[in-house]
Structures are given as structure tokens and as C-alpha cells.
Amino acid sequence: MTYNRNTKSEAKSPLYHAYTVRDGKEGQKGFWTRIGSFFAHDDGEGGTLLLDALPLDGRIVLRAPKADE
Between 20 and 30 A from 9 (CA), which of 26, 42, 58, 67? Predict the structure, then answer.
């Protein structure tokens, strides 16, 4: 069996960022906290969600990254 050590893949950019959103007080916007990222698989059949934290209410919002992120 041979191994090719020269085939390092480039780091992928996330397809989505994962956030937990807490509702703001009356008349105020909600609080968005980034808790992870979603990376698509090369075969286009799903992906991997990497989380740094878990939301207390179980709700995770996935959003496409903006150009400056």
C-alpha cells in the first residue's frame, strides 16, 4: 500500500455559518451569536456541521457568509 503525502487539500471555506439567536426585548433586535460553521462534502451530498457551542433552546440558524467574513 502506498501513501501520497503530497496531496494536501486546500482549506475549504464554510458554506454557512451557524448562529444561535436570542430574542431581544420588546422593540429591540435579537442577539446573534456565531456558534459554528457548515462545510459541504466534495460529492455534493450533504456536509459537516462543526459546532463550538450548543444553543440553550435547540434552535440553530444557518446563514451564508458575507463577502467580508
Answer: 67
In the chain, DSSP finds a helix count (H) and a strand count (E) of 0, 4
Grid cell at residue 22: 436570542
* pLDDT, tens digit (0-9, with 9 covering 90-100), for 23-52: 888 889 889 999 999 999 999 999 999 999
In the block, residue with C-alpha cell 440553550: 56
* Side-chain half-sphere exposure of 7, counting CA atoms within 13 A: 3
What is the pLDDT, as a whole number, of residue 24? Answer: 86
Other Cβ atoms less than 10 A from the Cβ of 28: the count is 8
| Residue 60: DSSP 8-state | -
User: Residue 19, Cβ neighbours under 10 Å: how many?
Assistant: 18
Per the structure block, which three cell numbers stand in for 23?
Answer: 430574542
